[in-house]
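Can't paste images in this forum, so I'm doing it all in text. The chain is below; anyone willing to post the predicted structure tokens underneath?
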Amino acid sequence: MLVSQNGWGVSYTSTEICAFRGSTVDINCSYTYTSILNLRDTTVQETFWFNKESNGIHVDLRTDPEYSGRVENLCGNNKCTLRISNLRERDSAVYKFMFTTNQPTGSFTGSAGVTLSVTDPQLQVHVRRSTANPSSTWTELTCHSRCQLPDHLSYVWYNNNKPVGRKKYFHLRHFNAEDRYHCAIEGQERFTSPTLYAPKPPSVSVSPSGEIMEGSSVTLTCSSDANPAANYTWYKRSGDKKVECLSEETQFVLCSIRSSDSGEYFCTAENELGRSSANISITVTYAPKPPSVSVSPSGEIMEGSSVTLTCSSDANPAANYTWYKEDEDSPTASGQIFTITDITAEHGGKYQCEAQNTHGRSKATLHLTVGAGKSLIIMNIIRLTLVVVLVPVLVWTLWTRMKKTLSLKSEVNEAVEMIESHNCPEYENVAAAAQTEDTEEQEDLV
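Text version of the structure:
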């Protein structure tokens, strides 16, 4: 309150007031003066409010065309109220009160004045979740305005554009994903707060788009329509493994991406009212890894049998396979599986498998050793049979015949001795015949 030395003064209830465009505001003050001055009773002759001067003269707002029909000066008991209705933003100004009396120097102005700011309500809703119990779903919504709300006004709450209460605080037990809340000032429903709602299903994208090459840099982006603004978390799921948290930003960058980074990624958008998620699959392309080669059946490979060579390489896109034999320029076969039927010794040697796709190639080698076939085994069996069975038989046959020859020879000798002892011609003939037969047998043996 500004008071002069002689007891004259003006006091304002508030020095700063914020009001809404289109509303009505009251600016209040009280004033004092001495009842007797210079032996003369003081009488108040005029009271008015002004916010501008013209040639040193204070302009009564009631005479200002800009305020025509919108201002009232309500005074009584040394108190005055300036009421301005249908406020406009250009009404923002410093307003002062002045009163005049019958005294020669009896005018007084409250020089400090009241600063009026006219604006839209600019309502905001603050959201607070219960933290006492982690499983609690209790949520408190609070409506706030840029200007202090006059005592005679209150807030109105809406759920999906339907009024559900008139109070500054609004409590929710449960918040459904489809619910949308906002607040307004009673009587000023055209001014509403932004609408609150849980995050909508996020939009996820990968950059650069198109084919993702191993070694390149990839950025995953997640965005969701939500109020309050959503917080984002990126996760990756790999097979049956647990979900792995990767980032808590709207973007997740994979530098020098690897083939193992292929998989399903999903983003969760969450605010105080709920959460929503969406996923995206990443496929990384890469040149063939060093192939794995095998031969079936395993073990010794015999002539005449069939053999299957298999080549396998990790590649994306899938690799094409070509088989080469050492010292041969032209491919021996194509395809992941190479089968050789009725194999011979000439099929032995080194074989090279080449896996190739649009991003590169890789090679691996195996050695094929071919053993003796069935025909050679049969010949060896026959030879062994001849040695083991026929040779002893032949030896026994020769021994038997020799034994028989020796026996006959002994008998002939005995007969000759008898003939000589008896000098008998018949015995001589018999002996000669026996000796002739013995000679023939010996010739046969020879």
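The radius of gyration is 60 Å. Residues 441-446 have pLDDT under 50 and may be disordered.
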